[in-house]
Design brief:
The chain is α/β, with parallel strands linked by helices and about 475 residues long. Helix content is about 45%, strand content about 15%. The protein is elongated, with a radius of gyration of 29 Å.
């Protein structure tokens, strides 16, 4: 993208960790680590925003050389990844802590405070019976020798030192009343959601104005960025989505996050975040689409059999129309596949393995994963080669529908006879093509948008055939499929 001054926009990328950058086994893949380090090495501004403490997040992200501040504790704390230390932490005022202590007595059995004592952060929890969910948390961190876990023998000692964060872990049923009690206050920030990995709920309370969203905006301003792109999967990412210039959800996200996203990419198991950032930085998508339009116009120059550039552009516009109803689809992949879908059509070219399409994409440094995805879509378009098979991805479904819409209705009739004339096909063979393919397409479309458009075009072909049989005296008018 280009800034108002004419140069490339300065973009800040902020990704959630659990369920977004991290895989389900709570690690970051070697591929994502490598891609992110390459991008950071080129000066791309990438950071993370997580509910984890910096200590916990650093153990997972230590192999990634983040050069700008990272955001932890849901926006409560900034840290320097290179120095492996926290640099800025928000704290609760004493009067706020007093009010919270009265509102959440359940902390005694299912929660802890994050307290700074003599310059070190401790997780303070009270001795005594615990919810099974919180007991599991305590046992895990003691099992790995986490020295930050500190049991106290007096409830008042839970609030010793400088308190930056309060965490409650239990069942939804136990915590919900307390969330309803504290969740509407403007004296602190509250997050209540199901854990990414386990069947338990977390109620987390932060100092006022400590949110991922506000921390990301603060970083954007500090780094003088033009725009911010955020990635997430869970409820606590939604405030970031609201302030982002582009909100990107992984496909495994919760439904409310998918609904709020500007774009949906692959899952956290597919290196989707790192690959998306790489694509954004390595290629100019709008310029490539423009290049592809020029490319197909040159490629099909002089074609008069119904498979020319005019056909490709109608498929492209059909895809644009359909994709408007499917925000989860990758628009760049969909539209480029639509433009290149006939670049290696066996009826027109003697190429193998999508040679023309691959050459176009290779010359423009499109990542190999994206190239393969587009080639799979192209190969799923042909009716004769994919009879009765629907593409696996929404992008493939859209392109297949976009192409098939251009094979029916008035334009489908015109293309049928154009191709028949060019290839020496008889009039009766062209009419047979209606029964072999065109009249079947309506019921093989994938999207509701395409099916709605197809109904009128299908009826138009039926009317044409009836009139054709009337004028020619043929007897097939009663055999036209409904």
């Amino acid at each position: 993208m280009v800034s108002k001054e004419g140069g490339k926009m300065r973009t800040l990328y902020v990704t959630d960790l659990d369920g977004t950058l991290m895989k389900n086994d709570m690690t970051i893949s070697e591929k994502s680590v490598s891609l992110l380090n390459q991008l950071i090495g080129k000066g791309v501004l990438i950071t993370y925003a997580t509910a984890r403490s910096f200590h916990s997040a650093y153990d997972i992200t230590r192999d990634i050389g983040f050069k700008i501040p990272v955001i932890t504790r849901n926006g409560t704390t900034f840290a320097n990844q290179t120095l492996a230390k926290e640099t800025e932490t928000a704290l609760f005022p004493v009067d706020v802590l007093r009010e919270l202590r009265a509102k959440i007595p359940v902390i005694d059995r299912c929660g802890f405070t994050s307290a700074y004592i003599d310059g070190k952060m401790y997780k303070l929890y009270l001795d005594g019976p615990k919810s099974k969910e919180f007991r599991g948390y305590i046992d895990y961190y003691h099992s790995i020798g986490d020295s930050r876990m500190r049991m106290v023998d007096d409830a008042e000692k839970l609030f010793e030192g400088d308190i930056s964060y309060i965490t409650l872990i239990s069942s939804k049923e136990e915590l919900l009343p307390y969330y309803e009690s504290v969740g509407s206050s403007d004296r602190w920030e509250t997050v209540f959601q199901k854990d990414t990995y386990r069947d338990e709920y977390w109620l987390e309370i932060c100092p006022k104005d400590s949110t991922k969203a506000k921390a990301a905006l603060k970083l954007k301003e500090k780094l003088k960025c033009d725009r911010i792109v955020v990635f997430g999967d869970s409820k606590n990412d939604l405030p970031m989505f609201e302030v982002a210039d582009e909100a990107v959800s992984v496909s495994n996200a919760r439904q409310e996050v998918l609904d709020a996203a500007d774009r949906i990419i692959g899952s956290n198991e597919e290196d989707a975040v790192a690959q998306y950032i790489q694509r954004c930085e390595d290629i100019n998508e709008s310029e490539i689409i423009k290049d592809a339009i020029d490319y197909v116009k040159d490629l099909f120059d002089g074609n008069s059999d119904g498979h020319g550039a005019d056909h490709t552009m109608r498929v492209y516009h059909n895809a644009q129309m359909i994709i408007a109803e499917y925000p989860e689809a990758d628009s760049f992949v969909t539209l480029l596949a639509a433009l290149l879908h006939d670049a290696d059509d066996y009826k027109l070219f003697y190429t193998e393995n999508n040679m023309n399409a691959r050459s176009f994409m290779q010359q423009r440094n499109i990542p190999s994963e994206t190239t393969e995805q587009i080639c799979r879509i192209i190969n799923s378009v042909s009716f004769s080669h994919n009879r009765g098979r629907s593409p696996e991805t929404i992008e493939g479904k859209i392109v297949q529908d976009a192409d098939r819409l251009d094979a029916i209705g008035a334009i489908g009739i015109a293309r049928t006879f154009a191709y028949g004339g060019k290839s020496g096909r008889s009039l009766s063979d062209s009419i047979k093509h209606f029964y072999d393919k065109l009249l079947l397409l309506k019921d093989e479309l994938n999207t509701d948008t395409a099916r709605n458009i197809a109904q009128k075009r299908h009826e138009y072909m039926q009317d044409f055939l009836k009139e054709y049989y009337t004028e020619t005296g043929y007897e097939r008018e009663n055999n036209i499929p409904e």
